[in-house]
Each structure stands twice: as structure tokens, then as C-alpha cells.
Amino acid sequence: MIHDFHVLAEHDASWLAIRQPAVIRLLEAELSSPDGDAYAAGLELACRVLGGRPIGDLRLDHRALATGLAAVRAGRCDRAMVRSLRDQIAELPVVLTRAEEDSVATVIAAIIWTVLDASARDLDDTLVA
Fold it and tell me: Please, what is the average pLDDT of the chain?
């Protein structure tokens, strides 16, 4: 078990880059800026959402993430989840503009939406089989 916070964070970021490259590309595409703060916040929250979680062999691809992003932008996500994400963003040791906070919350909500959608699809397949 990893007890050092920095080693754990590096492990989560490495795992995310290896197992979920489409998530890294989404973060880069949606959150890149000259100062890198929004990207750093997005990477931290993506590691919290996906790192160390038992999602099995689930791999998120760019099409599924694009669908999730469209769903979130269309307002098809839980408002309590968005409030929770905003609270977590506010607690990060980084200063973001309001627009950057919105972008980070949207991208992380899209990742969560995509995981839940894929998990529900897998469950449907299991129940049918």
C-alpha cells in the first residue's frame, strides 16, 4: 500500500495516462491554457474520480467522452454532483477564473457521466445474458 501522498498522486496520474489516454486527451483539449492551472485541477479531480476505483477493464474512448460532454453541456447531469465538484475545485490549492472553474466542472462531470453510462450499459448486458 502506498502511504506517501506524493507517490500516490504520481501513481494515480501514471495509471490514468496508461489506462485512460482518452481522458488525458480530453483534459488537454478542454482545459489547456498558458498557466496550466485548469489542466492541473482537471487532472487532480480526474485522478480522484478514476484513480484507485474498481472500474475493472472499463476504458473510456473519445466518442463516449464526447457524448458525455454533450450530455453535461445539455444539462443532463445531477445538480448536486456539480455542486460537489465545484466545492472540490474551490478546495484545490490553485486559483482559477470563473470560466476555468466552469470548464473543469463540466469536463469532470462528463467523465463521471461517461463512466456511469458505460457501467449501466455493462449491467444491462449482464442482466440480459
Answer: 85
Within 8 A by CB and 6+ apart from 113, the residues are 68, 71, 72, 76, 77
- Report which residue type is found at 12: D
Q: What is the pTM of this model?
A: 0.85
Q: How many whole angstroms separate alpha carbon 102 and alpha carbon 60?
A: 22
The 10s digit of each residue's pLDDT in 80-117 is 998 999 999 999 999 999 999 999 999 999 999 999 99
Q: What is the DSSP letter of 57?
A: T
Distance CA 112, CA 58 (A): 13
Domain holding 41, by residue range, is 5-128
Instruction: Output the nine-digit C-alpha cell for 19.
Output: 489506462
Q: Which is nearest to 111 in space by CA: 54, 27, 40, 28?
A: 27
**Residue that the C-alpha cell 485548469 belongs to:** 38
Cα gap 53→16, rounded to integer Å: 11
- The count of domains in the chain is 1
